[in-house]
Amino acid sequence: MTAESLNITGFHAHVYFDSDSFATAMGIREQLGNKFNVQLGRVHEKPIGPHPKSMYQVAFSAAEFAQVVPWLMLNHEGLDILIHPLTGDDVSDHTSFALWLGEKLELNIDFLRQVTSNNN
């Protein structure tokens, strides 16, 4: 698949936190839910899937990108956030197509490769 043939069907933001930043992360979560047309995923208080830290996911449409991402840029309060498109290529979505706010964390990409190979 070439970049020109990819279709972005939406976006995910993964907001990472630890015990010290939990309240901050929940405040951002509440604001995202109140201000934007987003779907708030479950709060995972342990690493899950390719994610190396506790986090929650925020799903939003391509139409919401121009509102949600600039807001996160100005309001992430020092938290690390992964923003990635949904193209159907999970590995590229989480790596070469990804944007990071804060520190770029090392994801477990082997987990994504395993899931992808099991689905084929």
UniProtKB/TrEMBL annotation:
Domain of life: Bacteria
InterPro entries xref list: DOPA-like_sf (IPR023389), DOPA_dioxygen (IPR014980)
A Pfam family matched in the record: DOPA_dioxygen
Chain segments annotated as coiled-coil in the UniProt record: none
PANTHER family: AFR070WP (PTHR36423:SF2)
Name listed for the protein in its UniProt record: 4,5-dioxygenase
Originating species: Anabaena azotica FACHB-119
Upper lineage: Bacteria, Bacillati, Cyanobacteriota, Cyanophyceae, Nostocales
